Amino acid sequence: IIRPALFGLVAIVVLIALLTLLLRRGDWLPRLAGAGARRWLKAFGDVDNALAALRDIGRRRGAVAASFLLHLLAWLGVAFEAWLALRLMGAPLSFGRTLSLEVMIFTLRSVAFAVPGAIGFQEAGYTLAAPLLGLPVEAALALSLAKRARDLAIGLPALAIWQFGEVKALRRATRA
Question: Which residues of 143-171 are buried (b: 16+ CB within 10 A; e: fewer)?
C-alpha cells in the first residue's frame, strides 16, 4: 500500500504544482481557447465566463491556499473523528492508519459519486480495506454504521426543515 500511496501523493503534488504554474501564467488560457478547444468547450457552456473564472482563481492565490488549508483541516478532522470512534469502540488504530483508511474511503466515495451517499460502497470499502491496516472487519463495519448514523442525525432534520419550509411556501402561494 505504501508504494502506490507515495506514488499517488507525488503525482498529486506534481499536478497541483503544474496547475498553480498554469494559473499564474494567464496567457495559456486564450491560447487554449483559440487552439480549437473553444468549439469543444462550448458544448459545456459559456467558455469565456469559465476562462475568466479560471483567470480570477489564478490571481487569488491567498484564497486558493486558504481553501486548500481549510479542506485539509476538515479532512484531518474527519480522520480524527474516525480515530476517536475506533478508540471508543475498543478497536484502537494509529492515527496514520486511520488517516489511510479514511483516504481510501473518500476515494471510493468519489468514484461512486453516481450512487447517492455511496450507499453500500462505503460499507464494502471499510470491510475490504480494514484488514489491510490491521483493523478487524467488525470494527470497520461498526465505524461505517456510526458514520451513517451521523449522516442521518444531520440529514433527516435538515430534510424535515426543508420540507416544512416548502409546505409553508406552498400554503402562502395558494392563499395569494
Answer: bbebbeeeeeeeeeeeeeeeeeeeeeeee
Q: How far is CA 74 from CA 5, 68, 141, 169, in A?
A: 20, 10, 22, 35
pLDDT tens for each residue of 89-107? 999 999 999 998 998 898 8
Q: Do residues 51 and 33 make contact, with C-beta atoms less than 8 angstroms apart?
A: yes
The position carrying cell 505504501 is 2
Percentage of the residues of the chain whose pLDDT score is greater than 70: 83
Q: Rounded to 10 degrees, what is the CA torsion of 91, 83, 158, 113?
A: -100
Rounded to whole angstroms, the Cα distance separating 17 from 9 reads: 12
pLDDT at site 113: 86
CB 81 within 8 A of CB 102: no
Cα 161 to chain centroid distance, Å, stands at 25
> Could you tell me the pTM of the whole model?
0.65
